[in-house]
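User: Need the bound-state model for pyridoxal-5'-phosphate:
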Amino acid sequence: MANRNWRPQTALVHGGTLRSHHGETSEAIYLTQGYVYESAESAEARFKGDEPGFIYSRYANPTVDMFEKRMCALEGAEDARATASGMAAVSAALLCSVKAGDHVVSARALFGSCRWIIETLMPKYGIETTLVDGTKMDQWQNAVRPNTRLFFLESPTNPTLEVVDIAAVASIANSIGARVVVDNVFATPLQQKPLELGAHVVVYSATKHIDGQGRCLGGVILSDKEWIDKNLHDYFRHTGPSLSPFNAWTLLKGLETLPLRVRQQTESAGRIADWLAEHSGISRVIYPGRKDHPQADIVARQMKGGSTLVCLDTRGGKKAAFALSNALEIVKISNNLGDAKSLITHPATTTHKNLTDEARAELGIGPGTLRLSVGLEDVDDLIEDLDRALKAAA
Ligand SMILES: *Cc1c(COP(=O)(O)O)cnc(C)c1O
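Assistant: Bound-state model below.
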């Protein structure tokens, strides 16, 4: 029941539905590892690929299949593979794109575990890697070597919401026949469409906005069918990063309300960013959608809306940042994001603690930097919470 012409809000409610003979309204949870065959001949045909149907849930499962198809309808991708976590999606997308002796160019502003794969894991297997300032096109161009096969980036970045020009990076990659993988978690599939901008593969941590209610981990890789068949199919069968059917069902339910949540959270985040920018206790606010965003022109070109996240710097460094976080009542201290609950994190001591001081400074993460993920609470309550906490911290 995948219809490519549906608008996102319709695709997210109906896309990919596989209804059983019972005609259930809500998607069924197929909690099964395996499948039985009518006959030995049927088992043989299914293994040969001559008969459609499921074989084993490490390969495919009907509930997981519905989630993958619904994500394809939303993203406008030909095919998808769901994974047990966002990192399973990122690692599979990256590792299946290269082999020993290849070279990877990546933006340096990355989610911590993504940076570990590029900086530590890939070189261990003989894959050369170079980190660049993703916002500088000459750095991407100059990093290219004869063996460059893959570009990787995240936009907006974590936590300073830097925006990379995806079309420009894709054009450099296409000129040398390299592929571009984009981690689109911060933008969400509603605000930014990397495939339309020329990227080849999109990855998500579905743990974030797609679940959006803090319940389960999940991930997904989207690309063209040929690349997935050729590069991911066997890897998934034999290494087993599969998503649990129960989690796939939770994520399917999350997709139904994704546009409502992202729209509301983005609107609230925009209001909070504007309010913080006027506050004397705050020295810097970074928000895609504000005119003073460092890449405001690219935001206007490649994103349909702002972000559900706000990056801010408190005057008074770590002490002020901790005091503010501790004084908040509604906003909770947590490193998750995209959740119905507003969450605040101090990147320097948590998500980005493994970087050197120098690497953190390069990314614009200071001792007073905080990342605020805006939830579904009433925005006036959130502003009052911030106002009270800023006064208490002063
Ligand atoms: C959270 C996150 C990941 C990893 O996802 P998990 O579901 O936690 O494994 C990867 N990239 C970005 C940008 C993230 O925010």
